[in-house]
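#struct-pred
JK: can someone run the complex with manganese (II) ion? inputs below
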Amino acid sequence: MQIKKLTKNLAAAMTGVDLSKPISAELKNTLRETIAAHRILVVKNQTLDSDAQEAFSECFGELLHPVTRRPDGIRLPQTHEITNAAKEGGISNDQYLGATAFWHTDGAYFPVPPLYTTLYAVKLPPSGGGDTEFVDMRAAYDALPQAQKQALDGLQVVHSHAEKNLVSGARAGTMDEVRDAPPVIHPMIRTIEGTEQRALYLGMYAVRILGMPDEEARKLLAELHEHSIQPEFRYTHVWEPGDLMMWDNRSLMHRAVGNFDMDREVRTLRRTVVKNLESAMA
Ligand code: OGA
Ligand code: MN
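RT: done, structure tokens with the ligand placed:
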């Protein structure tokens, strides 16, 4: 097995492992440690069907059941595909897919921020593109002036699945989605469980700040957002067949980059999101 850093501060690639078979305790530990160190891990050359990806993901904790309904009202299963392929054939860039194009962190609308996401390349656009971009929210926090860190400390942010359209312009939440995911509150600056590391926790679900007038809150959220997405904090993943990505959701934001011919070419990724049991039990 080999692990190679992809940039100075963010992302590593692992080769020489097979995640389609049950993994050893040692490999599981190495995966955890690699993600703790590099936050984003790309495991190369994997062949994973849905069951295998689910079994692998479950090694790290319970999986979250996404709240987003498909356009036909059906709730996505725990292991699900993000795709622009229409069920009846052809292509359909439904709005819920569009939402992944906005910077976010997965499941910020759950009471406990999820730990990991796994994404597997099922089908990549033949002409290339369809990248996934990440920003380092720990580095973004660290780069804030000391006085601003102090001013932001203690602020509580409302994250809402249904109201993300305020930020992203995606469709409004459906009744089912609103019922399943009422707004939750997270500190604007989170300490990563079991560490001293602090990170900004924002993204498209962050819609209000407790005790702050809406206009002022939106301005501050937008300012911090612009600060966080600066190129120096980014890693862009150019997918290759066989890639399985896994990342720490608590200290990153990510988005799908629309740099492919999405009206003609199919892009399908398969996804799971792992609960953060450590802090759920704390
Ligand atoms: C997601 C997501 C990014 C992408 O599935 O949660 O953000 O590149 N996907 O599709
Ligand atoms: Mn996502």
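RT: quick notes.
The two ends are 34 Å apart (CA to CA).
Residues 214-228 form the longest helix (15 residues).
JK: thanks, will look after standup
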